[in-house]
TrEMBL record:
<dbReference type="GO" id="GO:0008893">
    <property type="term" value="F:guanosine-3',5'-bis(diphosphate) 3'-diphosphatase activity"/>
</dbReference>
<dbReference type="InterPro" id="IPR033655">
    <property type="entry name" value="TGS_RelA/SpoT"/>
</dbReference>
<dbReference type="InterPro" id="IPR007685">
    <property type="entry name" value="RelA_SpoT"/>
</dbReference>
<dbReference type="InterPro" id="IPR045865">
    <property type="entry name" value="ACT-like_dom_sf"/>
</dbReference>
<dbReference type="GO" id="GO:0008728">
    <property type="term" value="F:GTP diphosphokinase activity"/>
</dbReference>
<dbReference type="GO" id="GO:0015949">
    <property type="term" value="P:nucleobase-containing small molecule interconversion"/>
</dbReference>
<feature type="domain" description="TGS">
    <location>
        <begin position="385"/>
        <end position="450"/>
    </location>
</feature>
<dbReference type="InterPro" id="IPR012675">
    <property type="entry name" value="Beta-grasp_dom_sf"/>
</dbReference>
<dbReference type="InterPro" id="IPR002912">
    <property type="entry name" value="ACT_dom"/>
</dbReference>
<dbReference type="InterPro" id="IPR043519">
    <property type="entry name" value="NT_sf"/>
</dbReference>
<protein>
    <recommendedName>
        <fullName>GTP pyrophosphokinase rsh</fullName>
        <ecNumber>2.7.6.5</ecNumber>
    </recommendedName>
</protein>
<dbReference type="InterPro" id="IPR003607">
    <property type="entry name" value="HD/PDEase_dom"/>
</dbReference>
<keyword id="KW-0808">Transferase</keyword>
<dbReference type="GO" id="GO:0015969">
    <property type="term" value="P:guanosine tetraphosphate metabolic process"/>
</dbReference>
<dbReference type="Pfam" id="PF02824">
    <property type="entry name" value="TGS"/>
</dbReference>
<dbReference type="Pfam" id="PF13291">
    <property type="entry name" value="ACT_4"/>
</dbReference>
<feature type="domain" description="ACT">
    <location>
        <begin position="631"/>
        <end position="705"/>
    </location>
</feature>
Length: 710
């Protein structure tokens, strides 16, 4: 526990005129009142108020706030009373302690209408004296730092409350450092696995490339010294929760995420801010769309800074924030800058904004209502102002829709109803027609325009920000894919039936469906097309003897093509690698015989004016051996055992790997060209479908390379 003299020394660092005697008396009184009380960790309870006071000294707050921290639990948890605190320490401190006590007694995690009323009380208390919430935030910060001594269920409750209420409140008041720490401490409780994974990946990245922070910091300092600019440069890695939130919002892997590192340049004047910006943009390549000037256009809480993202060493993206010392004080302290002291005097910062005016205006705006509906309206409007990572928009009828930051009119439409989202063709924001990819802002009114027959587009998946919208779009696209699978299944069925000398008919497919226990022939075709059902299963259901006999005799590769003359030899084109079951055509080459191309091979364009070189060919019906190569590009996660698992899976599909080449390596994934030996097009389709279903496979596609044409 911090000794009283050490605490006074912390205050004297920024306020030499502090009333040390009053702090000593408050320290002694608090220690006496909490005598015999212990925290869950077993420490004396008074260690907590002292730690809260120490946190507030970091914000250079006045004596009354420091003393309130020392006494903030006395009225609630000890025999102390309001009148006694007033008598000993004065009316101002007694009111502050009482205000913190009332905030502590609020249950901020109840049902919505109750929560709305509690928010109203919270902001009313804050409006009377904003130092109340400064003490409460420091109190919550220390409790979160020591939360491991609580029961698991209590930890989860406090962490959720911190994430939903106190962290956004700290951010809205401009205290970004406190918001970040509160979020990360709550994240550690609510999702420890994700946090540990991010830390592990970050440590791994540092082992691979070294700690780039001192290197980039030195680069920036050298650049400024050469130009004679006096400024301080600081660098840091962002907190795990900040990294995780960006990964979730942007759907990016850790290795693809930019802005993991942040750097700040603190200048002596506003003009130097723009000089530094010019130097950095001249020295490093700027990332488009990642530049923001909050000096010329400050945020509503007084925040001023220039943000830019550049490609630094080794192509790594880093964010650089440029601001003056006074701007930095507001950026770090937020509302505390309004109360902070320097050399015994209240600091006069021209950029500090008093959020009490904002809070008072909210209370004034909603002080007349007394029903649940009014409470709900108050709550929504408070969140509208406070939660910077959420967007609250209105329907034409005035209903509030809560969406994540970055949401679009499509997200808004799906938030209303899936049917509205599916049929969305346009939107009006505040009465003006806007593109569907427009990012919505707080307080906007959105009108969704729909049309019958409209269906979701695949590109919407890259636009929307909500899980609900993404799920509904994917479901609709799957329904559309069913039509494509049916068409593909019909072609696969045709080839399979021809292999056994039969013709596919609706009646035959209906019979197969009945035998296989499927509802109808369309379901048979859909499952064939999606590789859930093999054509051999359909044949066996109808013609078990033919299927068995046909499977016993394989067609020799040298005799697999029909349409050649007796003296003609053939080879498969490397550019398109045609497989049995695909439509083919032959092109004659002097000295090479006939080269077989897939009918849709782009290489055939150069022979359009040479019809005498074309040979009409087709594959012989029957069972082909796995002797026909095809090339796939597989992108898989870079984890131990993944490549071996993929190779095993290929073998399980009766395909042999004949060649394998790495073409792109990244920390989180790598791409491989895999050449496999297959029987026919259906075999390839089954293999692609099986691999695509694997969670470790990010992407897979067949490669046709014109650079390998004859």
């Amino acid at each position: 526990m911090i000794d009283v003299e050490d605490l006074i020394a912390l205050v004297r660092n920024y306020n030499p005129r502090t009333n040390a005697d009053l702090i000593r008396r408050a320290y002694a009184y608090g220690h006496e009142m909490h005598e015999g009380q212990f925290r869950h960790s077993g420490e004396p309870y008074f260690t907590h108020p002292v730690a809260v006071a120490a946190i507030l000294t970091e914000q250079r707050l006045d004596d009354a706030t420091i003393i309130t921290a020392l006494l903030h639990d006395t009225i609630e948890d000890t025999r102390s009373t309001y009148s006694e605190v007033t008598e000993l320490f004065g009316e101002e401190i007694a009111e502050l302690v009482d205000g913190v006590t009332k905030l502590t007694n609020l249950q901020l995690s109840n049902a919505a209408s109750k929560q709305a009323e509690n928010f109203r009380k919270l902001f009313m208390a804050m409006s009377k004296d904003l130092r109340v919430i400064l003490v409460k935030l420091a109190d919550r910060l220390h409790n979160m730092r020591t939360i491991r001594s609580m029961r698991p269920e209590k930890q989860a409750q406090k962490a959720r409350e911190t994430m939903e209420i106190y962290a956004p409140l700290a951010g809205r008041m401009g205290m970004q450092w406190m918001r970040e720490e509160l979020e990360d401490l709550a994240f550690k409780v609510l999702n420890p696995e994700a946090r540990t994974s991010i830390i592990r990946r970050f440590v791994g990245m540092q082992k691979d490339s070294g700690d780039v922070i001192p290197k980039i910091t030195a680069d920036i300092r050298a650049l400024l010294e050469d130009e004679g600019i006096d400024a301080d440069v600081f660098g840091r890695a962002k907190r795990p929760y900040s990294i995780w939130r960006k990964m979730e919002e942007k759907q990016l892997t850790f290795s693809r995420l930019s802005d993991i590192y942040g750097f700040r340049v603190i200048t002596r004047s506003e003009m130097d801010c723009y000089r530094v910006l010019g130097l950095i943009h001249h020295r490093w390549r700027v990332v488009p769309t990642r530049f923001k000037d909050y000096i010329s256009q400050p945020k509503t809480n007084g925040y001023r800074s220039i943000h830019t993202t550049v490609s630094g060493r080794d192509g790594k993206r880093v964010e650089v924030q440029i601001r003056t010392r006074q701007m930095h004080e507001v950026a770090e302290a937020g509302v505390a800058a309004h109360w902070s002291y320097r050399d015994g005097e209240r600091a006069q910062n021209p950029f500090a904004v008093d959020p009490a005016k904002w809070l008072a205006s909210l209370n004034e705006r909603f002080s007349d209502g007394d029903g649940d509906a009014d409470h709900d309206e108050f709550l929504e409007n408070v969140k509208l102002e406070m939660y910077s990572d959420q967007v609250f928009c209105f329907t034409p009828k005035g209903d509030v829709m809560k969406l994540p930051k970055g949401a679009t009119p499509i997200d808004f439409a799906y938030a209303i109803h899936t049917r509205i989202g599916n049929s969305c063709v346009g939107a009006k924001v505040d009465g003006i027609r806007v593109p569907l990819w427009t990012r919505l802002k707080n307080g906007q009114s959105v009108e969704v325009i729909t049309a019958s027959g409209q269906r979701p587009q695949p590109t919407w998946l890259d636009i929307v920000a909500t899980g609900r919208a993404k799920g509904a779009i994917r479901k609709s696209l799957r329904e559309e894919d069913r039509g494509r699978f049916i068409k593909l299944g019909a072609e696969l069925a045709r080839v399979a039936f021809e292999h056994v000398g039969r013709k596919v008919t609706d009646k035959a497919l209906r019979t197969a469906a009945k035998t296989l226990g499927l509802p109808d022939e369309r379901e048979v075709l859909a499952r064939l097309g999606s590789a859930e059902l093999a054509s051999s299963d359909v044949l066996e259901a109808l013609y078990p003897e033919l299927a068995a006999r046909h499977s016993d005799s394989e067609i020799e590769p040298s005799r697999s093509v029909l349409g050649l003359s007796a003296d003609q030899s053939f080879t498969r084109a490397n550019c398109c690698q045609p497989l049995p079951g695909e439509r083919i055509v032959g092109i004659t080459y002097r000295g090479q015989g006939v080269v077989i191309h897939a009918i849709d091979c782009p290489a055939l364009e150069e022979f359009e004016e040479q019809p005498d070189r074309w040979v009409d060919l087709h594959w012989k019906s029957g069972q082909h051996p796995p002797a026909y190569t095809a090339t796939m590009k597989v992108t898989i996660s870079n984890d131990a055992g993944v490549l071996g698992h993929i190779c095993t899976l290929i073998g399980q599909q009766k395909a042999n790997i004949s060649d394998l080449n790495f073409i792109d390596r990244k920390p989180d994934f790598y791409s491989v060209l895999v050449e496999v030996e297959l029987c026919d097009a259906e075999h390839l389709h089954r293999l692609l479908t099986a691999l695509e279903a694997e969670s470790d496979v990010a992407q897979i596609k067949r490669i046709r390379d014109l650079s390998r044409k004859p």
